[in-house]
Amino acid sequence: MAELLSDEEIRTQLPDEWEQEGDEIARTYAFDDYLAGVSFATQVGEVAEEEFHHPEIRIGYEEVEVRLTSHEEGGITEKDIRLANLFDSEY
């Protein structure tokens, strides 16, 4: 089981554009059109499946919101930070 990160650890490790919202980290990615966002969400899903750590994904018209938390641990862990960085590399 992964250890929860402190608020200070989250602040220092959180990638740009990501925000802590309670026990989750979240980012909204902007796209020129709906299908570009759908394609990105598919890429995020594939990475998440490989890592066996699954985010909440909300697809809007020109944006995709991604939220991460480690449910079993009850908050934010290194796994969430790692995935945020991996998702950003797909963008």
From TrEMBL:
It holds the Pfam family Pterin_4a. InterPro entries: PCD_sf, Pterin_deHydtase. CDD domains: PCD_DCoH. The keyword Methyltransferase does not apply. The lineage of its organism: Archaea, Methanobacteriati, Methanobacteriota, Stenosarchaea group, Halobacteria. GO terms for molecular function: 4-alpha-hydroxytetrahydrobiopterin dehydratase activity. It catalyses: (4aS,6R)-4a-hydroxy-L-erythro-5,6,7,8-tetrahydrobiopterin = (6R)-L-erythro-6,7-dihydrobiopterin + H2O. HAMAP family: Pterin_4_alpha. Its EC number is 4.2.1.96. The keyword Lyase applies. Keywords: Lyase. Belongs to the pterin-4-alpha-carbinolamine dehydratase family. This is Putative pterin-4-alpha-carbinolamine dehydratase. GO terms for biological process: tetrahydrobiopterin biosynthetic process. Coiled coil: none annotated.
